[in-house]
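Input record (one chain):
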Amino acid sequence: MIDVSRHFIPIEIVKRNIDGMEAVKMNVFHWHLSENQGFRIETKKFPKLHEMGSDRLFYTQEEARSLIAYARERGIRVVPEFDMPGHSTAWFVGYPELASGPGPYEVERKWAFRPRDGSDERENLQIPRLS
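The corresponding structure, as predicted from the sequence alone:
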């Protein structure tokens, strides 16, 4: 898996990773394209997803097609991942009406879950004791 949603990676570097996968005979590339930190692929139907939810760091549809063809030529299947319903804050930046709670929303800058009230989730964490 390559998580480009949290850390955008230029397409040429992703292709270099595909070459490495081919070299060690790996044949499935899990491409993590959406997360709270970014929606990383162009969509014509819902353009605000990549325009507002990616910090302008996203792959065009042509780049995605090119990468899939590149992987296919090397015997590698591409499995894209779009997180939903969780890990989808970046979706709500452009389309807040899709969210179950009131906005406004912004692209997350941290990796951990943060309650909407802004509190630190560790304050409320209760770990059951096992006997």
